[in-house]
Amino acid sequence: MKDLRVNAPRSGPRRGMRRGISLIEALVAMAVMAFGMLGVVGMQATLRGNADLSKQRTEAMRIAQERMEELRDFSVLDTTAGTKAFADKASFAATAVTGYTTNTAYTVTGSVTPAGAANQKTLTIDVTWTDRSNTPQSVRLVSAMARIAPELSGSLVVSAQGAGGVREPEGRRRGIPPQAKNFGDGTSGFRPPTNPGNVAWVFNNVTGIITSVCTTSAATNAALTLASLTACDATQSFQLISGYIRFSTGFAQPTVAQVTDPTDGPGLTPNAEVEVLQTAPSTGTRDAASGHCFHGTASTYIEYFCAIPVATPTPASWAGTLQIKASTLATPNGITLSPNLADTTATGRRKVCRYRAAASYTGVNAPLSSENLILIRPGDNVVAYTCPSPPTFAHQPAT
Predict the structure, then answer these.
(1) Where residue 78 sits, what CATH number does that domain have?
(2) What is the pLDDT of residues 259-281, one digit of tens each?
(3) Is the pTM of this model over 0.70?
(4) Same domain, 363 and 269
(5) Is 340 a domain residue?
(6) CB pairs under 8 A, 24+ apart, for 69-75?
(7) By residue range, what is the domain housing residue 199?
(8) Which residues fall within 8 angstroms of residue 291, CB to CB, at 6 or more apart?
(9) Which of 85, 129, 250, 398 gets the highest tally of CB atoms within 10 A of its CB?
(10) Residue 141 · residue 68 · CB < 8 Å
(11) Across-strand partners of 52?
């Protein structure tokens, strides 16, 4: 028999009573979310504190590096007025640092400790501050500094001796006279020729600067010693310029070969002398009369040495012009310099040629050697003689 029941309702709760969540479940969910948010807030606070401390530490390190570089900076070894010296590097007490805009205050302290028999110093820089949580913080830098002249650092980038380097045999600056006596302490002594006042110059072997002018009991350069130097004056520094005066007065118009290797002597008594007309850093005539120039005895050439004053601190430069001193030709020889390059006078006058391209000197900050001049006759009363170029150039008079 067919069952006529269709979708008979089942017993149990109604459908509306099975929807939604209870109040307890909502409160639990909110509590979990609150704890999570508290963790995020705590993490953000920690990140901010760490970032702030990192910024402060970076700034402190920069301060320490700046103070360390200032402490390491020196240009001479011994105490010199107006110049930073190795000997003057010393500890300094805690000082507040100004000029920084961070949210704390820094204090920097420096310690300098001699080491290695005073040829080395250990440097320590401490920077301290208090962070946001009122906790003391600090950074420290430690370095060492050797008692080595700063000029020697240039030896790392120059070529070896004999291949265009800045130093000659005996470890001395190019331009120091080869006959100067090396004292072995970084200096050399030189007694200029024809020197009735027994003057001796003391050179710095590295810079080539004349650092002091002394008198000496030694009669020759070979006999010079530190003990033989007295009454030394180190208040003025000098740069040396030296060379030779040559002569080509026995010829007509000189040839290149005759000025390249002159063979005739001066035939003048007294001998020709040079003078330097200095224009910077001071002005004046530097010659034998002023005690700045010395000349050797005549042969086929006359050697000269002139000390040109320079300003301190060193190295310093000078500017000026080197020329023959006309009065040394005039008396007692009756020789004068030609008034111009067109002069054709056969006797009684001289023209001057130079072996250097430039007529004057500017920015000279090292000793100069082989700055040579040569005297020629002006002409044959018809033709004007000229300076063979190269290797010489018309010099005195210039016009």
Answers:
(1) 3.30.1300
(2) 888 877 766 655 789 999 999 99
(3) no
(4) yes
(5) yes
(6) 71/110, 71/112, 71/123, 71/125, 71/145, 72/123, 72/143, 72/145, 74/150, 75/150, 75/313
(7) 169-235
(8) 197, 199
(9) 129
(10) yes
(11) none
